[in-house]
Amino acid sequence: MTVKEIIQIENGNRNTIILLREGIFWRAYEKSAYAFSMQVHPYKPTRKWVIAVKQDVVSLGFPVSAAENVLNGCKVLMRQEARLVLAASPIDPDGFEVWKQTVPRSLPPAVVAPVSAAASPVMEPAASSAASSAASSVVSSAVSAVGQCCDGLADCIRRFNIESKTPVDCMLFLMELKRKLAE
């Protein structure tokens, strides 16, 4: 199911919690995440900008293995392999919008940037993950600052948090490192 389809379903959601199975997790989006957080279990939600729908999308999730304990006492309206629909109290649209704005937005993928005049690299968020040329220039400036020695370069690589990066960020970072090593 695409994010567009999920948002369309959630826009019409008035009194259910829709959980979608994604790998080893059950995930709830938008109004379902709000209702789940308020009525079932206060898991920490995340809010991310999704280009495909041109809006912030809030979601939360929990492991499938924890479902029996987490959902204990919830009324199941529909059970399928990849979808679980639970009964919920009526969802207040205004309450949802207020709650959604209180969920901190996930930072865009970070890139390396120098922290001091000594060119000690650290991770800092990029201004916009959509502007790959801007990300590239930040990576370039960070790597050029540590290009003087291998220890600095190795430290730069160690501090690059690959788990929170997009494939494009990683590719740009690697290309800049290769360019610096060739100089």
Order of helices and strands: HEEHEEHEEHEEHHH
Q: What structural class do helix, strand and pairing data support?
A: alpha+beta
Unreliable stretches, pLDDT < 50, 5 or more residues?
110-149
Give me the count of strands: 8
* Helix percentage: 40-55%
Rounded Rg: 21 Å
Global outline: elongated
Strand order of the largest sheet: 3-4-2-1-6-5
Largest sheet: 6 strands, antiparallel
Strand content: 15-25%
Number of helices: 7
Distance between the termini: 47 Å
pLDDT averaged over residues: 80
Report on this structure.
By secondary structure, this protein is of the alpha+beta class. The chain is built from 7 helices and 8 strands, in the order H-E-E-H-E-E-H-E-E-H-E-E-H-H-H. The chain has helices spanning about 5-10, 30-40, 65-70, 95-100, 130-145, 150-160, 165-180; strands at about 15-20, 25-30, 45-50, 55-65, 75-80, 85, 110-115, 120-125. Strands 3-4-2-1-6-5 form a 6-stranded antiparallel β-sheet, sandwiched between helices. Strands 7-8 form a two-stranded antiparallel sheet. A hairpin with a 4-residue loop joins strand 3 and strand 4. The protein starts with a helix and ends with a helix.
List the helices and strands and how they pair.
Layout: H1 3-11, E1 16-22, E2 25-29, H2 30-39, E3 46-50, E4 55-63, H3 67-70, E5 76-79, E6 83-87, H4 93-102, E7 110-114, E8 121-125, H5 132-146, H6 150-159, H7 167-182
Antiparallel strand pairs: 1-2, 1-6, 2-4, 3-4, 5-6, 7-8
Task: Explain briefly what this protein structure is.
The protein has helices at residues 3-11, 30-39, 67-70, 93-102, 132-146, 150-159, 167-182; strands at residues 16-22, 25-29, 46-50, 55-63, 76-79, 83-87, 110-114, 121-125. With 183 residues, the chain is of the alpha+beta class.
